[in-house]
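Input:
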Amino acid sequence: LKTVPDVTEKTFDFDQYINIRRQLIEQRLSQYLPSAEPEQLWQSMRYSVLSGGKRFRAILCLASAEAVYFNKVGGTVRSTADSALLDTILPCCCAIEMVHAMSLIHDDLPALDNDDFRRGKPTNHKVFGEAVALLAGDALLMLANEVLIKETPKSVGREVLLSVIAELAHCTGANGMVGGQVYDLALTGKVAEAELITKMHNGKTGALIRFSAWSGATVAGANLETQELFNQFAETLGLAFQIADDLLDVTGDIKTLGKTPGKDQADNKSTWVTLFGLEGARAKLAELEETGLAFLDKIVLSDNRLSALKQLLQYAIHRVN
Amino acid sequence: LKTVPDVTEKTFDFDQYINIRRQLIEQRLSQYLPSAEPEQLWQSMRYSVLSGGKRFRAILCLASAEAVYFNKVGGTVRSTADSALLDTILPCCCAIEMVHAMSLIHDDLPALDNDDFRRGKPTNHKVFGEAVALLAGDALLMLANEVLIKETPKSVGREVLLSVIAELAHCTGANGMVGGQVYDLALTGKVAEAELITKMHNGKTGALIRFSAWSGATVAGANLETQELFNQFAETLGLAFQIADDLLDVTGDIKTLGKTPGKDQADNKSTWVTLFGLEGARAKLAELEETGLAFLDKIVLSDNRLSALKQLLQYAIHRVN
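Output:
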């Protein structure tokens, strides 16, 4: 396991920060997803979870935990204190990635979006068949819960852990991600109103992003007030993430995007861009950047501990893929 | 809420016992599945969970809990003491039914068994479309966890509750039910060996039946030794349930069965009957009945408290649908 280098306000290197954490998360994911039996099923699960991706949600969870943790133990973000924190929070980061992978597998199925490629690779059902892909998604959902319970150390209070599992179920289920996918079905081929687009996005993308920041802070021991600030920050971040996605679908190019742009338009799908227009969407993003930074200012932690969260917000808004 | 009548060894009426409990479980399920938004999704979830079924797993869970509970509080199975027990165990019973319904919805999809009818009604995707059916299954899996955590009273220890959720995830995931469905895919059109048939059945049906009895006993406060006896009893019961199912597919008639018999043969699927023959399967069932009753004898509880479990074993073996 690589140690996480000292990070101070002056030396904060976002790319390095992201790369080291991505590697830590992927090592742990691989460990939680052995090549077991039935072979086809585990291969299919590994294929989707371990085949790259930004790990945005898992890193958001880890960065939120770090911000709270180092405020508690004092000092700057240090390598020495990190292994305890990593053991505490990586199971939650990995559970989030498993749930996210599951949503992508099911979303790509012919019954839903019928996508052949994701991140430049054939989608899960193209490789393993629809039956195994469907079941791999189901299994990942259960594995996320199993990992959270069996791998989170006892230092995390049992009530806290139960609240995290209940919240994950809530954010992932009919009132969250899955509900958002159903609203998405209703959006295709229609000129939708802002209310429906908001419901769709809040569920489909927003709920798991909010959970990522909230659970990171909560598992690391944030009090209720701080938990609520993380919730508000992450709601802003999540919305910005979605608007940026819709913008990229119009303005992005296939090379940096890794997928064909213009899909929403081809599907005749209502998005933030169809609703606000290009300039309106950009203005909304600028507003969300300010709001998000203002929420972070309210989180009473010394500045350097929030650097990563600030950069994650700015990344969500200014990214090119 | 109907009260559960006094049950003594002499007056034990299995049909009445089952009917009252089925009603209690269904009332609670309906409460946990409101008609919420998105409407299509919740309707689809309600359709599959509330459209009948034997409730065998939920009743097994409740009967196991009752056996342990009344041994602790003393006396015979009484109406007065029951409401506390019901509040304790019904969330778990309902979670089991939700997971079971989810497995049926996904199993019926064209990507898997492609069944148009279940229990004499059109399958979920025939009514709500494949996309919603798929997502309803996902949502039910998460709702099962949410209900377990939010509705199980604090009188159940937090460690116990976490162990129940972890075990449900394990029994339902790649090492249990979902894994069994993948083995099932490998069985179709092949002459399979006993090992593969066993793996398929243990996962697909056995794991959740075992969980049902174990979780009932565990939530009601059974010690580790008693938990293990419930595990062994339920493994026997689960295997008997499956062999009886395979036999019914050959010997049952469409009217009492509620579905077309002969499907396994039409699908060229290896079953216990293709493996053992009709007489061999019947002999195996008789052997399992003895083994199961012997396990119950080892559970140190007064006889009347085990009546329901004995009858559930015999029902699993001698049922006609």
